[in-house]
Amino acid sequence: MQKANYIEERKAIADRIKDLRIKSGYTSYEAFAVENGLPRKNYWRMETGENFTINTLIRILKIHDISLEDFFKGIK
């Protein structure tokens, strides 16, 4: 069985993560990562649509004080 890539879905999630950062006043992903105790490389991967763990996503959402439900609204 061939593994699915889910490229469009990953891109939509990545865009939402980046949008949250920018709306929080961070122009740099590096500054956001450092100030919030996140590994810069791992955070950059999230913003570019690379694979990541659900724990990491939950951590990002807690930083932004947003629920999973609100985060995924409108993402298809």
Automatic annotation (TrEMBL):
<dbReference type="InterPro" id="IPR010982">
    <property type="entry name" value="Lambda_DNA-bd_dom_sf"/>
</dbReference>
<dbReference type="InterPro" id="IPR001387">
    <property type="entry name" value="Cro/C1-type_HTH"/>
</dbReference>
<feature type="domain" description="HTH cro/C1-type">
    <location>
        <begin position="37"/>
        <end position="71"/>
    </location>
</feature>
<protein>
    <submittedName>
        <fullName>Helix-turn-helix transcriptional regulator</fullName>
    </submittedName>
</protein>
